[in-house]
Design a protein that fits this description.
Blueprint: H1 4-25, E1 37-42, H2 50-64, H3 66-73, H4 77-89, E2 94-98, H5 108-127, E3 134-138, H6 144-160, E4 171-175, H7 181-196, E5 206-211, H8 214-217, H9 225-232, E6 237-242, H10 244-250, H11 263-276, E7 282-284, H12 297-313, E8 319-321, H13 327-353, H14 364-380, H15 385-390, H16 395-402
Parallel strand pairs: 1-2, 1-8, 2-3, 3-4, 4-5, 5-6, 6-7
Helix pairs in contact: 2-4, 3-12, 4-13, 5-6, 7-9, 9-11, 12-13, 13-14, 14-16
């Protein structure tokens, strides 16, 4: 007779380390809400009322060009009103004050002043309506020429926000132009040192890795360094953000062909997607620099709406926005994506929960994806909590099914 217990113990002894590594390195989806976008604004232009001003500018543009907007997005009356509501109460879901490419090189005195201005603006935005659900800064690269200035700005902003970390966990910084795992490790050391000076703050300074160099995708040894970067962050990395134009330029792609749709971009993002899977690290698509302004309003809206829709269908649920005029199409594409799929997702989840065989025989992994889809739609306002409940879905059960881990939100 087979001694299954002894065979299992044999396997257990061999797999103990692997089991622990799997739990540590692949904890599952991060808990809490992922923003649908990150709005980048140069540091010299940021102030605490910026979110409201962006929303008002987007609404004014929508008012002036509603017929064109409807034609491009296919939005009906209900969808337009849903978008108007979003632009009124929460026009910006995540904001990054940019001290890097969008800001340029300034004197130390000027950048110090803008770092103080950012701190004041963040504090103001907490009390402002509409406020900022999530926010942070992009500081200069840890490459040697900009390292000291980048760390100085980071330290000034963190120091000014010390008390904030006791009331908010939605501050994140962006590490740009990463070319080595060592830079990620160095940032972890810097953040640990900054936290050591703050009372009661440990492990709360988190960052995103901006994937905008080929070295971060394919290292000199032929490995996908971005995967190693995630684990070198020791749990502090919350996201991988694709950098459209730096990455394209480094790859030698002509300026007129640089795009989120270029095969080189899709290759990089596919590597990012595989590297982040199961780690709790989220993905963000990059930006388009073709803005819907002036004579190219319609073409800019068409392009942005198509790119956002394309990204959503490829599993990139977040992207960059650079201008208030991109907000209407961001929300139109995002809301349509979740609303168009909601009824089918709810029906499949109901069948799965009741162990019924419906039109689709879903496996547990797909049920997790369906639950996450519904929660993402609820989080951004595409569907309401009442609609989720009305479909017979319990949000706590959905969160459990989606296996959102106990990692920090944001």
């Amino acid at each position: 007779m087979l001694d299954v217990d002894s065979l299992t113990r044999l396997a257990d002894r061999h797999l103990t380390d692997a089991d622990e590594a799997l739990r540590r390195d692949y904890p599952g989806m991060r808990s809490g809400r992922q923003p649908v976008h990150t709005v980048y604004v140069p540091a010299d232009r940021f102030h605490g009322r910026l979110a409201g001003e962006y929303g008002a500018a987007a609404l004014a543009l929508l008012d002036r060009h509603e017929e064109s907007f409807r034609g491009i997005t296919g939005a009906d009356d209900a969808m337009v009103e849903r978008g108007r509501h979003k632009l009124t109460v929460e026009p910006v879901e995540d904001l990054r004050v940019d001290f890097e490419d969008g800001y340029g090189v300034r004197s130390d005195e000027e950048e110090d002043d803008h770092a103080a201005q950012a701190v004041a603006g963040f504090w103001s935005s907490i009390a402002d309506e509409p406020g900022l659900p999530a926010f942070g800064i992009r500081f200069k690269s840890l490459e040697q020429p900009t390292r000291e200035r980048g760390i100085r700005t980071l330290a000034l902003v963190v120091d000014g926000l010390e008390d904030l970390f006791h009331i908010s966990h939605h501050f994140v910084v962006t590490l740009p132009k990463v070319t080595s795992v060592d830079q990620v490790e160095a940032l972890v050391l810097v953040l640990e040192a900054l936290e050591s000076r703050m009372s009661g703050v440990r492990g709360e300074l988190r960052f995103e890795i901006q994937v905008e160099t080929p070295q971060s995708v394919l290292g000199a040894d032929g490995t996908a360094l971005v995967a190693r970067m995630i684990h070198a962050a020791l749990g502090r990395c919350t996201g991988l953000h694709y950098g459209t134009y730096d990455y394209s330029a480094f790859c030698g792609i002509a300026a007129g062909d640089q795009s989120l749709e270029h095969p080189a971009a899709d290759h990089a993002k596919a590597i990012m997607q595989a590297a982040a899977a199961g780690t709790g690290v989220r993905l963000s698509d990059g930006s388009t620099n073709i803005l819907p302004v002036g004579d190219q309003l319609r073409s800019g809206w068409e392009l942005h709406h198509r790119l956002v829709t394309r990204a959503l269908h490829r599993g990139f649920y977040q992207g960059w926005d650079l201008h208030p005029a991109q907000l209407p199409t961001r929300y139109a594409a995002t809301f349509a994506f979740y609303r168009d799929g909601f009824d089918a997702a709810a029906a499949r989840l109901s069948d799965y929960a009741a162990a019924r065989t419906g039109a689709v025989a879903d496996e547990p992994a797909t049920a997790r994806a369906l639950a996450d889809f519904v929660l993402r739609g609820r989080d951004c306002g595409a569907v309401s909590a009442d609609e989720v409940a009305g479909a017979g879905l319990d949000e706590d059960a959905l969160a459990g099914l989606a296996r959102r881990s106990a990692q920090g939100a944001g």
